[in-house]
Write a structure and sequence with these properties.
6-stranded antiparallel barrel; 6-stranded antiparallel β-barrel; 2 domains; Thrombin, subunit H; globular; alpha+beta; 15% helix
């Protein structure tokens, strides 16, 4: 009823009181309906959660795998204008430089700078031969860098939650284990064993602790001063860049 509205029953009408059995039947049907609604809601929550994380391949409690290799000393390059880092690597006898796009605001740097104080050691960049979402692959000319043993890349990279990885920045090695892997773009996140200063780490190589090969390029950290989580893009390079 609304306001002063009233309802009257005509004189020739009769009213009936529901029987107890009718009430019981109604209650049972109500309970069934409520139960159905409840489990539908649960199913929707589960589906929504699964759909929200459908892009995630691995996440959650880690079963950490042991490091199987020793990463040899390697010094990363410094980006042009002291912007971030970079590294050189070899794939079937062909050498390249890897670094991020964002550290150069999307452009190709003219040169990269080695840590060495050797005169005229700067590395001249020839051209960009490939890019991913936030990674670029460059060719270069440098007698100095040609004499430095590169990191090794192998295609068909397969990573799992709990895999050990090592990020190399300047002459440091920061170890951790993968906590999350994303499908598109192919990227991952790893948790380090102890916090570190992450300033200037964009473009640093991430090396597998199982194979010793370079698997990605570091792009993000959860803190510039005491980082525990590092995000990197997984390298997925086409054969065409070797020709």
């Amino acid at each position: 009823m609304r306001g002063n509205e009233t309802r009257t029953i005509p004189a020739n009408s009769t009213t009936s009181t529901p029987s107890p059995s009718g009430c019981a039947k109604g209650c049972v049907l109500t309970l069934i309906a409520v139960s159905a609604l409840f489990w539908t809601a649960v199913a929707m929550v589960v589906w929504t959660g699964a759909n929200r994380h459908s892009n995630t391949l691995s996440k959650g409690r880690l079963k950490k795998k042991p490091v199987m290799i020793t990463v040899k000393p390697y010094e990363t390059l410094i980006g042009e204008g002291l912007s971030g880092a970079g590294f050189h690597f070899e794939w079937d006898g062909h050498r390249f430089i890897g670094c991020s796009l964002h550290q150069f605001e999307g452009r190709t740097p003219a040169e990269m700078i080695p840590l060495s104080d050797e005169k005229n050691a700067n590395v001249k960049v020839e051209k960009r031969v490939y890019k991913q979402k936030d990674v670029q692959i460059l060719t270069y000319t440098s007698a100095f860098l040609d004499a430095v043993k590169p990191l090794i890349y192998r295609p068909g990279i397969s990573l799992s939650s709990g895999d050990p990885v090592i990020m190399i920045n300047l002459d440091q090695q920061i170890a951790g284990h993968i906590t999350e892997i994303e499908r598109a773009p192919r990227s991952a996140e790893f948790e380090v064993e102890k916090p570190f200063e992450a300033q200037g780490c964009s473009g640093s190589p991430v090396v597998s602790g199982l194979t010793g090969t370079v698997v990605g390029v570091a792009l993000t950290a959860d803190s510039p001063d005491a980082a525990r989580l590092v995000g990197f893009e997984i390298l997925d390079l086409p054969e065409s860049i070797k020709h």
